[in-house]
Structures are given as C-alpha cells and as structure tokens.
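Report of the visiting student (M.T.), summer placement. My assignment was to run the structure pipeline on a short list of targets and document each run. The first record concerns Meiosis-specific with OB domain-containing protein.
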Amino acid sequence: MADSFASKTFTALADLYPNMANLKIIGIVIWKTDVKGFPDRKSVGSERFTFSFTMRDSPAHFVNAASWGSEGYVRSLSDSFRVGECVIIENPLIQRKELEREEKFSPATPGNCKLLLSENHSTVRVCSSYEVDSKLRALIYLPIKESRDYYSLGDIVANGQSLDGRIINVLAAVRSVGEPKCFTTSDRRRGQRCEVKLYDETESSFTMICWDNESILVAQSWIPRETVIFASDVRISFDKFRNSMTAMVISKTIITTNPDTPEGNILLNFIRENKETNPLDGEIDSYLKESINLNAIVDVYTVEQLKVKALKNEGKADPFCGILYAHISTLNIDGAATAAVRHRCSGCGYVMKEASSTCTTCSRDSWEPKSVLLSFHLLIDVTDHTGTLHACSLTGGVAEETLGCTIFVSHRARGGLRISVLSCQLADPTEAGRDLSGQGHTEHKLA
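After the run finished, the structure tokens were exported:
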C-alpha cells in the first residue's frame, strides 16, 4: 500500500483479495452508473435493482463496486453520493471478478477483485473534509489510461469508418453541452440523451453523445471552451444521419474532467489562447438556443436586478437565464466601430478578418481554398425604467423569437457582463405589468 493515499485506518485497494472480511475502505468516486432494474429469478413478478461505481485510492489502483437489492435501498444509496466525492465503505464483500464478462460491460480495472455491497451488512458514507487527504481528492484529475494513449479528433475523422465500433480514448475540449432530451422507446422504456460538441487543435466540432443520467449530470458541469476531458473507452460509431463519426459514452467509459497531464494542459492552453477566434465567439447564441429550453425560463428581472445578480456571480463561470421587459434603445448598424456582418470560413467556422483573407486554421492542412460565409453580428442596448444593458449580442434569427436573456461574466465586455439575446418579441403590456409587479417571479435558476 506504498502508493495509497488512504491512511493506516483503511485497507488499501492494492491489498484486496477475495473473501477478505471486516474491511474499511476509503476512496474517491471517479465514475458511476444509473440505477437499473432486472426481473428477480427467485421471485416471479418482482425486480431486483443495481447500480455500480468506480473508486480510487492511488494513481495505480481503482476498483469497481456494485450494489444489488430493493429499489428503495439501491436508489437511496445511489443518491447519497456523486462523482468526485470521497466515500468510506465498511464491510463490503470482496469477490474475484470474471475478467472477460465484466470488463466487456464495466470499466477495466488493474486488480482481480471487485466490491459487492450488501443491504444488510455494508455501509457507504460520504467523507467529511477532515477525513480526506488532498492527494486523494486530486486523483479525480488523473485519467485511468496512460496520458498519451488517445486519439485526436482529427485522427478519428481521418480514419473514418475504419474505426466504426471501436472503443478508444479521446482527449478533447468541450465546445458546447446540449440540453438533455428525454424519449420513450417502442417498448415504452424511458431514455435520455445529451449531445456534447468537442473540439481540439485538429477539428473544430465533433459530437459525443451521453445516454445515461449520471454521465449527463457530469456533462452539465462542463464549461464550454474552458473544460478539457479525457474520455477513456468511448465507442466510436459512424452516424448515417450526420454522415460523420461520433463518440458514445458507454458502460465501460470513465471521463476525467480537466485532466492534470502534460497533454491535457497543452490542450487547455490552446483553447485559452484561441478564445478570441473560437467558432463559438460569434455563435454563442446558437449554442445557447440549442442547449437551453426557452419555455423553462420563467424568472423576470429588471436591468438593475440583472446587474446586481451578475455582480454577485462575478468570478463564477455558470450563466443564468431570465426574462427582461425592455425596449431596444440602441441599434447601431451604421457606426464605423460596429461589425454588423462577420465572415466565417466554411471549412472550420472560424472568424476571418476580411472576406478575402485565407483561413489560417484550414490553410495549414489543406491547399484547397474554402468559401466564405456571412453571419449577422449586432450589438444592441436594451433599456427599462431601472437602467440600460449595453452591448447585448443579437445574432442570426434570434430577434424573431420570444424574449430571453442569458448573462455571462466577462472581463472583456462592458461592466463585466456578456449578454446574449436568446429571443425577442413584442411584450403583452398586461403580462409585463403583472410580472414586473412581482407576481410570477421566482428565484433565479442557473443554466
């Protein structure tokens, strides 16, 4: 247990062997699956429920744990902790794992054991802060695979359908995280999906799909253009609808957010240095429209309230949404400093300084010239009885939709605010008067 970050009070994962008894284990949860139900063979007509998670106590050692039991017990246990939290497990059953069967559907682990949690004998609890060494918490930033063992997005695209069905590792930055969408299958089972757009030095956009609640929950915490992920064991597939390759999170997958590796840090520096020319800079409203359900935005604010809220959130990356009843006080399409139209490369989507300029991103890898696309980019001021919001971004077809604002903290924008209009339409005076008087106003929601 020389490399374990657990204290002598606990048994190190490296020291586990089948049928050990009276154990106490500590580790950080690095991944987790959804709760699932299966027909109980011993009791016809009833179900048994299960979920699993992977915990780690050192750079070299991590183990899979599973819990089986009644729906109430399993759901309660699953809800008691999240990925990234440290837990203490007492009295687990140590079993020898069935290598070929289990690693086909579960994350591959270095040892030959697995943990089974019993409703009657085992306990799991989240650690208090004084019980956890900082080195143990830092393990959440360490990929389970060798840091250089990955495909770039360009490699995946270049290999094309030869990678269809393959399970590989991917290092990429997060371009956008879509809104989770629920669906019902033909046999009436409920499901969900969430599309994440990735990018790196080689590709401007690549789709990864999450199918389970736990991975979607993790994905919702990712900050676009500020988060790097190392996705271990994702399945690569050819999407006939998109006519492109995509990655899918599966039961074997473990995703490390912001990996503390040389390669991860290089990519992180790349996305920071290229924020100004990232394809999202002129399409942030398009991303927001895809990732936020406009019908779910019910919070009503005045300009003054928005400014106060933004000041309270300064330094935080998460945006919030709200409805603002105001009038457009400035729409300057004639000023020399206003760029009403932006030129974009049709190949990679990056903003080009002039219509005739050559895209510096594409030209490095191809001699074929790319066409130039035009896209609207307007800055407007909106004013109500409490004040004015300056330099709000109004692009594309957003002005034809219902009114909604998303506020971003940004040191480059005036007053530390970055405002994107998600939709804009004439307000009903009766509705505006009712909402502004306080009726229907709720606490703000983060988006």
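Residues 104 and 357 are 50 Å apart (CA to CA). The radius of gyration is 25 Å. I thank the supervising group for their guidance throughout the placement.
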